[in-house]
Amino acid sequence: MAAALCCGLLDYKTEKFALTRNRRVGLLHRLLQLAVLGYLLGWVLVVRRGYQDTDAAPHVSVITKMKGVSVTRSKDASSRLWDAVDYASPPQGENVLFLVTNFIATAKQAQGTCPESPSVLDGMCTEDVDCPVGNPVVHGNGIKTGKCVMFNATHSTCEIYGWCPVENNTLPRKPLLAEAENFTLFIKNTVNFTKFNFSKGNTLQTNDPTYFKSCTYDPFFNPSCPVFRIGDVVEAAGETFGDLALLGGSISIRIEWNCDLDQPTARCQPQYSFILVDRRYNFRTASYYWDSQRRPYRSLMKLYGIRFDISVHGQAGKFGIIPAAVSFGTGIAFFGAATVVCDLVLLYLDTKADFYWKEKFEEAKPPKGKTEAAADPQWADQDIRNAQ
């Protein structure tokens, strides 16, 4: 058995070509070849550009700048001017920028005791026992003093030690910085594909110093201008500015670079997309000051606005010998796979499979010499008959 196994391992099989007049298998073979050819030419070479070497990890740089001026007026008829330093955080941002569109102000807060807001559930009370001394108000504004006091004619709340008066929670019905819809956002972006020593920016190379001060981005008529109107960005994200500006929100600005470096450099241009991520966004900030008697005060601001998250993605491709050879080699291997599939159909699924087996597989035996013939009984009998 071991000898037979050893001989089987040392056998060599060579291909034998047998022409079969089987139209069904012949049609299947051509269809498979056409499918492989379509895959190789259409998907690998045209769509995926499999003949190119790629760099999918560019080094990116993003600089943003917000511009615009707005005036807000409070209930006491006082007005306040807002410019980029006031409504943009940080004023000269990078990948993340926040634009104030609405706010609630609580002016002249000082540390002391005052009633908790009735909007805080843990601050409600009916008697002093409901306000244990030293316990912080859950989701509130200070520490309980142990007293239950009247907040107004209808509500009793725990007295707290904190910044007083407590935060105002009356939200304006309309965004106070409605003019922000016409503010502009300048985005300067540069990508560097180090693998090919290639860099490109999204700003138009022009000698006109007033171009960036007068242009506005439009995907069809002015795609090379990096200045975006806020209202247009919100609309492109699928939202109206008035609704989003009231309670704030978050918008993702995605910059996509897909560069074919086998083509002219001018064709390497960014594509912008705008996605609404969230419909609510706010945070608090305060400015501190002291009066003439050195007592500390602060003005608390609850800011609502639009947060812009800017992300840059890209890929560059350029012809390379190795990826081209791999793609073509893969295609040729697929052509061979078509033949294998047709052989399997012919030998296992066809009604004349037994006939094709006999025609395709044949054991080749070399002619025997005299010594081997003498040892073979069949040849020995023939020699005896010849002798007679």
Automatic annotation (TrEMBL):
Keyword tRNA processing: no
Recorded superkingdom: Eukaryota
Keyword Secreted: no
A Pfam family the protein falls into: P2X_receptor
Keywords (A to Z) from UniProt: ATP-binding, Cell membrane, Disulfide bond, Glycoprotein, Ion channel, Ion transport, Ligand-gated ion channel, Membrane, Nucleotide-binding, Transmembrane, Transmembrane helix, Transport
Bias-annotated ranges (Basic and acidic residues): 363-373
List of glycosylated residues: N182
Lipid bilayer topology: Multi-pass membrane protein
Membrane-spanning ranges: 31-51, 328-349
GO cellular component, one term: plasma membrane
Main location: membrane
SS bond partners: C114-C164, C125-C148, C131-C158, C215-C225, C259-C268
Annotated region described as Disordered, given as residue ranges: 363-388
BP term (GO), one: response to ATP
Sequence positions that bind ATP: K65, M66, K67, T184, N282, F283, R284, K302
Reaction catalysed by this enzyme: Ca(2+)(in) = Ca(2+)(out)
GO MF, any single term: extracellularly ATP-gated monoatomic cation channel activity
Localization, UniProt: Cell membrane
Assigned protein family: Belongs to the P2X receptor family.
Primary role: May act as a modulatory subunit rather than a functional channel.
Name of the protein in question: P2X purinoceptor
Organism: Aythya fuligula (Tufted duck)
